[in-house]
Amino acid sequence: MYFRCSMNKKRDQRFALILLSQLAIVAVGMFLIWVFSVQIPGAHIERLNAVAIGTLLAIVTFLLFAVIYRFGGKFAQALLNDTRRVSGIFSGYSWVHLACVAALAGVGEELLFRGFLQTWLSNHFTITWAILIASIIFGLLHYLSHAYFISVTLMSVAFGVTYYIMDSLLMVMVWHAVYDFIALVVLVKYPGLVRMTLVKGH
């Protein structure tokens, strides 16, 4: 009984630290936008549509990664190993816990990397360079391996291009958050689905 309480306490403390770190990213993004007077462009799409499209893009992205895991060979195995390392931090957490983490990650990271960094860089470089620089920095800060860096950087490019075309920060926030949530739920709650995909792929 004592051991179980101790484990629960450690898990709660770890979750609190994760939330604080994600909230810190939100705060940093807002602070930098304010300090550098970055103007967030007005969206070309209504909020409800932005949420719907962002959710759809998240589902498509997850399905794309499922195909990569099935047919990607050694690259897919390396990527999956890294993804499991990340998701392992959330072992034992509830759906609500996973949703909170995913939502804050989507809001905070997109606010910082798209809302601030990409927008600020686009005032000093071409949009192509702005997207690439922001995405490479994003990938480096998430670096676990070459495979993970490549996949995260390419996802960041996709976020950046979509943000540039649609001028909707909400859309990429939803895309990022919903994808993270789906990935966490599958890896933490239904790891057997991933194993089935790998077996079928080989």
Structural summary, described in words:
There is one protein chain. With 202 residues, this protein is an all-alpha fold. The chain has one domain (10-36, 44-201). It has 8 helices and no strands. The chain has helices at residues 2-35, 47-71, 73-87, 95-122, 127-141, 146-166, 169-189, 191-201. The longest helix has 34 residues, at 2-35.
Radius of gyration: 18 Å
Describe the sheet with the most strands.
Answer: none
β-strand number:
0
Shape by Cα distribution: globular
**What fraction of residues sit in β-strands?**
under 5%
Number of domains: 1
Contiguous runs where pLDDT drops below 50 for at least 5 residues: none
Distance between the termini: 43 Å
Overall helicity:
over 70%
The residue-averaged pLDDT reads 92
Number of helices: 8
The helix/strand class is: mainly alpha
- SSE sequence, one letter per element: HHHHHHHH
Tags for this entry?
globular; 202 residues; mainly alpha
Please give the structural blueprint.
Layout: H1 2-35, H2 47-71, H3 73-87, H4 95-122, H5 127-141, H6 146-166, H7 169-189, H8 191-201
Helix pairs in contact: 1-4, 2-3, 2-7, 2-8, 4-5, 4-7, 5-6, 6-7, 7-8
Provide a concise account of the structure shown:
By secondary structure, the protein is mainly alpha-helical. It is built from 8 helices and no strands. The model has no long low-confidence stretch (mean pLDDT 92).
